[in-house]
Amino acid sequence: MARTPTTPAESPADKRKQREAAQEDVLMREVDEAVRQDELSNFMEKYGKPLIAAIVISLAAFAGYLYWDAQQEAAMEKESETLISAMDQLEVNNLDTASTTLEPLASEGSDGGKAAAKMLQGGIAMQQGKSAEAAEAFAAVAADSDAPQTLRDLATVREVAATFDSRSPEDVIARLSAIAVPENAYFGSAGEMVAIAYLEQGKRAEAGALLAQIAQADDVPDSLRSRARQLAGVLGVDAIEDVDEVLEELDADGETVAPTAE
Known about the structure:
It is built from 10 helices and no strands. It has 262 residues and is mainly α.
């Protein structure tokens, strides 16, 4: 009958070697831990204070940003509420109340809020027949370097329009010449006033050419294009590029259109 193999018993020498190996392993771990602690201690001694200061400053800055962002959002909501309240007053024709509602925003609001409030106040003054007051509000926006350029251009156009009759042709041209170009969003309105100023100077050719440009601009309102085309025609400038399109516009306006030959 076969015997079951057995593991030879460990000798005392082997056990002693195992104990020594285990003790050496524990010792090495303690040495490693001591080295790491020493390195950490040296690091903290050398960089600890600057590092802690940087962390504190970063946390303070982040907290400050969160506070600022909350304040900005609250301010924007308040400005929006003011604008909506003023618009509600305008809808029921309470012009004085609307203008009074806008006053705090126009004087102490953010850059965008202040510009929007002043533009509304200028429009209200125009409705009330106060051209000088309206021009003053529009001029403030036109001169505001913090306002968007598009809004400043609109304010300039409205300022000149509010006081057009009291301005010299030279002044109108100087104020609007940079805006009376096809690339500008307010080319039509600015260009028409510049063309009229040219006529007052006796410059019929310049006026006709500018009116023809307005008549042919696709992004100008149809009513303004039609008026520019008629004025250009009076000055002897053909501003019609598409006859069929013009006939359709006249037909849409309810005017009688003669049938064209087939």
